[in-house]
Amino acid sequence: MSKLHKTDFTENGLLDRTFRLSQNQTTVKREIIAGLTTFFSMAYILFVNPTILGASGMDKGAVFTATALTGIIGCLLMAFLANYPIAIAPGLGGNAFFSYTVVLGMGIPWQKALSGVFVAAILFTILSLFKIRELVINAIPKDLKLAMASGIGMFIAFVGLQGGGLVVASKSSLVSIGSFASPTTWLTIFGIFLIGILMARNIPGSIFIGLVATVLVGLATGLIKAPTHIISLAPSLHPTFGIGIKNLDAFLDPQMWAVVLVFLLVAFFDTAGTLIGLTTQAGIIKNNKIPRIGRALMSDSLSMLAGSVLGTTPTATYVESSAGIALGGRTGLTTVTIAVLFAFSMLFSPLLTVVTDQVTAPALIVVGVLMASSLSKIDWNKFEVALPAFLVIIGMPLTYNICYGIAFGMLTYPILMTAAGRRKEVNYITWILFFIFILLLYILNIVPKG
């Protein structure tokens, strides 16, 4: 890095003191550019989240507003509590579990499912406060963490393939290839290739650019109906605001506690893996420890709590933050920039009507690819590790249930490790989770098929 002039750090004394710009060898300009890059890399969530949660019956407009507001809250918390250049917003994975497993699979109304998110968020915050999250995160076997991230990626990609019409149901073989006679299927194919080419060329914001280009092609060909207007006030939160709190009586049903448990587990693993990867990239990790990790986890927990009240699913730290970090983002000023852009984006809610399943499908598939990259880090040479990891990965898309995939891994890992003579490597927390998942499967009672 070239030597930076002192004036670079004194452009705004308040910003320098607040975000320690000079200490982190960065500038206001560099942080803002990093924030712009990260935002355009992750902006697809504003349109994908309403689509996925809309499948559960939730109001897409309200989800759009809740997504943007939660992103604002999450990024500001991360900026001022942890001073990290890492964005927080409602994540893919948790929303898929909410819609396709809890609501459509288990038959739990979305109103009651939101109460599960709310309770999970409260527990999440308490666990963060007492540093239990850090303890459990460190105790989960590394290979299973990697497998869970990969499995969720496979599941999300499968949802995208279905939504885009590339994969359809089949009575003889369960699934089959879709019809290429449908023009909307070709719209999905166009989006996949465009985003793929942009990603291959390392173009910042590839997913968002591909999403916009696919919409434009759909509008030009008449496959997507044009909106009556583009700019509007953000949709009302009334359909979703506080719904989870109003439906706490849902916890009379034991299944709801299983839902809460899985929300906790999914959020645990998603945040842990992403934080480790991004802080490594940013050079934040010192002596194999992440400074201010407790504050970062608290930011995630509080944003999840806020999102559950507003009406959206668990938040996540975004791997797309790596795009901004690659351009020099090192402090919370990057995430403040992202928060401002989330606020500005709330004026464009009418564009929801043009973001169809065929438009979001390529984004889901590509994000699935990114999440599946964890596969390369799993120790496939040890069968006692390979089988549990494989069952996690394949279990999620094939059972259409994230919960089952996690359960398959946590139930087989300690047994196979013991059989391989590596019992001492299995800590007591892993055994506790083993029995928790036995209880979980009993409660779910082989989840009713939707």
TrEMBL record:
Organism annotation: Bombilactobacillus bombi
Keywords: Cell membrane, Membrane, Transmembrane, Transmembrane helix, Transport
Subcellular location as annotated: Cell membrane
Stated name of the protein: NCS2 family permease
Pfam families: Xan_ur_permease
Membrane topology term: Multi-pass membrane protein
Listed GO MF terms: purine nucleobase transmembrane transporter activity
Top-level taxon in the UniProt lineage: Bacteria
Keyword Secreted: no
TM annotation in the entry: 32-55, 61-81, 88-108, 114-132, 144-168, 180-200, 207-226, 256-280, 331-352, 359-378, 390-416, 428-447
